[in-house]
Amino acid sequence: MSFTRTVSGFRRVPTLHGDTLQRIAARELGDAALWYRLIYLNGLRAPYITDDPAQAGKGVILAGDTILLPAAGQSAIQSPDPDNVYGDDITLADGRIGVKNGDMAIVSGIGNLTQALSNRIQTRQGELQRHPRYGCALHQLIGQANNVNALAAAGLLKRSLQSDYRVRRVAAARASVAGDAVRAKATVEAVTGEQIGVRT
Hints:
Layout (H helix, E strand, L loop, with lengths): L9 E5 L6 H9 L5 H8 L6 E2 L10 E2 L3 E5 L1 H4 L6 H5 L1 E3 L1 E2 L2 E2 L1 E2 L2 E2 L1 E3 H14 L23 H17 L4 E12 L2 E10 L4 E5 L1
Parallel strand pairs: 2-3
Antiparallel strand pairs: 1-4, 5-10, 6-7, 8-9, 11-12, 12-13
Helix pairs in contact: 1-2
């Protein structure tokens, strides 16, 4: 027996602690930009997914519950092109816009993701008024006892990097605080499989 047409339908997958629709779309559909489809398919409303059982209910999924996705044959991207997945942005160097040939310089693909992750860990969490959860909380450890800092700093660094929906996992994370200086270094696996080094 052989099949002559693509089987249509849906599948259910479990959500993970800290998941966002963008992260699920990147992981399961190969394109984070398809997150809006999950809203309509599951009848969701903000905040869409929560770790708090008190917020879960009609239109809000509790982390650990399943979410409905299109069948793999419908929209999953088997080998996504990093240039399409990670897009383009303006190059920033030391907080300044990069310039090339009299115009703004652009960074694409994996370079764009690397820049975005570096910017995330260099931004103090809470610094951006409209995005209070964006950034990294490493600055909170400045002035604390050094014997606690290394482990706590590595945990804060890992949490910050994992909050980006384009990151599949953080393979390694190390950070240290000495006086008022913070040093951080991590190896990240992107959703398309590349290993990326990030440091500050």
